[in-house]
Amino acid sequence: MEFDRKNSYTLAILVNNKSGVLMRVVALFSRRGYNIDSLSVGETEDPRTSRITIVVTGDRQIVEQIIRQVGKLVDVKKVYEMTSNGSIQRELILVKLRADAETRSQITDIAEIFKAKIIDVTSTTMTMQLTGTLDKLDSFLTLAAQYGVVELVRTGITALERGSRALSETDFH
User: Fold this and answer.
1) Can you tell me whether residue 61 is helix, strand or coil?
2) For residues 117 and 127, what is the distance between their CA atoms, to the nearest angstrom?
3) Which of 38, 86, 114, 139 could form a disulfide bond with 156, CB atoms 3.0-4.6 angstroms apart?
4) Coil/strand/helix, residue 12
């Protein structure tokens, strides 16, 4: 997931856990011509509420306008921009690499360095699970690419604010 981190913005959006809400939120980005770099969504500690985390790259002024417009949608409870210093941001990847008898130990060494978990091995492939920051995942994938990536899937960024304050407890806008 290569994108310009200087111009990327991570938005946490609390919404009512109802059908169609995600589509309406994403449609705002689409209408503005913005590509969503990363999207993750899931239920929160309250099953009536879902949290959408969106990473978008673009112009600051337009992103601020999108934040205001998303905040006006009926089922949106809160919108908050997660800063890189003020939040913990992680992603999960599953990656299947080509592996044979000669390369298996080298791939295992790389996996150990990055604390990747080997979750499947065949005579021709190794599949690993890895979580971390975008920089960590990109570094791992750069090293692993020499063996041949057979398949890769990424969950998208999830983020929490640092410290004791919770998005669900405090009204951020």
Assistant:
1) helix
2) 9
3) 38
4) strand
Residue 18's domain spans which residues? 5-87
pLDDT by residue (tens digit) across 150-163? 999 999 999 999 98
Does a structural domain hold residue 37? yes
Domains identified in the chain, total number: 2
pTM of the model: 0.84
**Residues 80 and 98 reside in one and the same domain:** no
Q: Tell me, what amino acid is at 36? A: I
State the Cα–Cα distance between residues 85 and 4, nearest whole angstrom. 17
Residue range 89-142, pLDDT digits in tens: 999 999 999 999 999 999 999 999 999 999 999 999 999 999 999 999 999 999
Residue 113 φ then ψ, to 5°: -60, -40
